[in-house]
Automatic annotation (TrEMBL):
<dbReference type="InterPro" id="IPR017946">
    <property type="entry name" value="PLC-like_Pdiesterase_TIM-brl"/>
</dbReference>
<feature type="region of interest" description="Disordered">
    <location>
        <begin position="333"/>
        <end position="357"/>
    </location>
</feature>
<feature type="compositionally biased region" description="Polar residues">
    <location>
        <begin position="348"/>
        <end position="357"/>
    </location>
</feature>
<dbReference type="Pfam" id="PF26146">
    <property type="entry name" value="PI-PLC_X"/>
</dbReference>
<feature type="signal peptide">
    <location>
        <begin position="1"/>
        <end position="21"/>
    </location>
</feature>
<protein>
    <recommendedName>
        <fullName>PLC-like phosphodiesterase</fullName>
    </recommendedName>
</protein>
<dbReference type="InterPro" id="IPR051057">
    <property type="entry name" value="PI-PLC_domain"/>
</dbReference>
<keyword id="KW-0732">Signal</keyword>
Amino acid sequence: MLPSLPRLAASLALLTSTAYSLPRNVLSGPDEGITLSPQSSILSARDTACNNSPDLCSKSYSQVTHMGAHDAAFLRDASTDNSIAGNQYFNATLALDAGLRLLQAQVHNKNGVIELCHTTCDLLDAGPLEDWLAKIKGWMDANPNEVVTLLLVNGDNQDAASFGSVFTGAGIDKYGFVPTGTQGWPTLRSMISSNKRLVTFIASIEASQAHPYLLPEFAHVFETPYEVTSLAGFNCTLDRPQSAGSTGAALQQGLLPLMNHFSYQALSDAIMFPNVGDIDTTNSPSTTTAGALGKHAQTCQSQWGSKPVFVLVDFWDHGPAIEAADKLNGIEGKTVGRTTPAGAGGSNKKSTGSTNAGTVGMGRASLVAFFMAAVMLF
Ligand SMILES: *[C@@H]1O[C@H](CO)[C@@H](O)[C@H](O)[C@H]1NC(C)=O
Ligand SMILES: *[C@@H]1O[C@H](CO)[C@@H](O)[C@H](O)[C@H]1NC(C)=O
């Protein structure tokens, strides 16, 4: 006997929401006449997963830990001559492929264009924000079950209208999620089905009625310190916005916690660059090693009574950092649809980051800019 259409729909809905948490026989009751298994070719795990896991679909956005690439556009690779100012070995598209869902970057005003520049455009210029957003939009088009978050540091305090025209130009505004006041954050599934699955935080902008999806960062997020120069330096203290008072007060106000977990190597008080020397320890999911990502997250979770919603790391392929987020999300070893780039976590990369190679990839002008501006790295 063929099941009626509503009945089939109900079975599919059940499969979608519970295929991975219910024993198989629940999916094919004796009177159904059909068997739907998780192996069904109609519904692949990829289709039923949200952010790489079926278990995350019913979680609210604020119950998920979103692993993020700090300075995602600033690469230490052939495109920058292995600049020591670079924070990542692999670009934002590859970060998304590997399961990261938060991309942070810094922008500056270069002759009227919003440009991805690291501290100054002389130091490291990764091109116009609009081009980068267009690539992220392309990735989101191809990956309709993924909720992505952007966090932009607004180096020259450009206004929401300027960002708005760049987002529109890239076509990514169509995914822009607008929170609805008092209702808290929706589930990933709901953001995916409404196709409003890009959350954009920008530091130092005013909320804009014309571009309501451009969210002033510190109206929604609080951060731990970001200028850490040793593995012992990571803690869970509120750094920004200072006006929130304390982590407890910030959580009470509904601000989502962002744990910064990257360290700088300091050449002097004023000169710092991303530290690759300790990166395998820094990004380790270990919950017992001092300075490790896993331990830092666990410490914050116990101090705050809730886990970090956002985490930012450098050189995300090391660790790999995503493992710590999977642990926090309870989906370790159960994810689908990720790919890791060739050479990820490679030890060959490490040598380019030593202090001795300090001038690799830096012309004289950029070196001078670097020395003058390094205090501002964040
Ligand atoms: C990352 O690199 C890949 C492969 O080279 C390229 O196709 C993609 O457009 C790049 N993404 C970004 C954001 O630059
Ligand atoms: C956390 O780290 C920041 C930055 O290093 C420091 O200023 C602050 O005092 C630390 N907090 C605690 C509780 O140690």
